[in-house]
Design brief:
335 residues; alpha+beta; five-stranded antiparallel β-sheet; four-stranded mixed β-sheet; 24% helix; 27% strand
């Protein structure tokens, strides 16, 4: 079924709670709906969203916002250790993770409590605590708006990278309708993230639910509940620098948190840089840097404007550039 609403308020469709209106809002609950859409009649541009948990609307949107209500979960049980599962794009990520963890399936537990929907999770290639969505995806089904047909992409063709994918780079051409993931019955806890490993005190977790609960505790300890305060989660990507540049960053500091990548490049937490620049808890109009996690910008007043957020963002970028010679890039998509 297709639902169309004109001059639609998007406040409930972005976790920042920014007030914005689109010319047309279209919600659909089947891939076949996409094949029947009157695409040429829709106000342009087109924008596909999930729950809006990684979006900053900087003003009203003059085009058409599309939202998937495709919700299904299909298990393909062949009696093997690995279990393929087909998931609709409109399924809430954390609901799905709770379900599969309850079935004793490993692979997505480290992504627990990340807000959003399955379709958007592959577009953004969400990640946390040493895991990324690409680690479990084996294929993605999409509607090609240009060729007006359904297409499928195996994982090697998805262009997955750090918070990036083919779908994110396609300028709205591909609308994700479903995702095929492969999870494991065999225990494979991923404790590569130091804080997560420490929460188990050297004892290996026996179930994915135990890891999920530990991840939830970590997230709740430093990230705001989007139901209580507007935000889009981590606002900036963690920068990657050369070893020589990292050595310069370390000057004057006893220790600098970091992660060495393949090839010798080094990922430095943006949160640490932001805090060193004195922005933890900083306020700009109705927006603020979250006091427990400087990587997060929040709608502290509940009435913050997009300009408040943008001004604070630019202040942070300028300060980090001046102090560390590093250019921060937003993870949050600006619309």
């Amino acid at each position: 079924m297709i639902k169309k609403l004109e001059n639609y308020d998007l406040s409930a469709h972005n976790s920042f709670r920014m007030k914005a209106v689109c010319a047309l809002y279209v919600e659909y609950d089947s891939p076949k709906d996409l094949e029947q859409m009157p695409w040429d009649e829709f106000p342009k541009p087109l924008l596909s969203i999930g729950s809006g948990s990684n979006i900053l609307f900087t003003g009203d949107f003059p085009g058409t916002v599309l939202h998937s209500a495709i919700k299904y979960t299909k298990y393909v049980d062949l009696g093997m250790d690995d279990l393929p599962i087909a998931v609709g794009a409109g399924v809430t990520v954390d609901d799905f993770i709770a379900e599969v963890c309850g079935h004793g399936l490993w692979g997505m537990e480290n992504l627990s409590l990340i807000p959003g929907e399955i379709g958007a999770s592959v577009v953004q290639n969400i990640g946390a605590y040493g895991a990324e969505m690409k680690d479990v995806v084996t294929g993605v089904s999409c509607y090609d708006v240009v060729e007006r047909r359904m297409v499928k992409f195996p994982t090697p063709q998805c262009g997955f990278a750090y918070r990036d994918s083919l779908f994110k780079q396609s300028d709205g051409r591909y609308i994700v309708t479903g995702v095929l993931v492969r999870l494991s019955r065999k225990p494979r806890p991923n404790l590569s993230y130091k804080g997560l490993a420490e929460s188990f005190g050297g004892v290996m977790p026996e179930t994915p639910t135990q890891v999920r609960e530990a991840v939830i505790a970590l997230r709740n300890g430093k990230l705001p509940d989007p139901k209580e305060i507007g935000s889009a989660g981590s606002f900036f990507k963690n920068p990657v620098v050369t070893a020589a540049h990292f050595a310069k960053i370390c000057e004057g500091y006893a220790t600098v948190p970091h992660f060495v990548l393949e090839g010798g490049m080094i990922k430095v937490p943006a949160a640490w840089m932001i805090e060193q620049c004195g922005f933890k808890g900083a306020v700009q109009g109705g927006a603020a840097v979250y006091e427990k996690q400087p990587l997060v910008i929040v709608n502290a007043s509940g009435t913050a404007s997009a300009q408040d957020v943008l001004t604070l963002e630019n202040r942070i970028i300028s300060a980090v550039r001046e102090r560390f010679g590093v250019e921060l890039h937003p993870e949050v998509v600006h619309i």
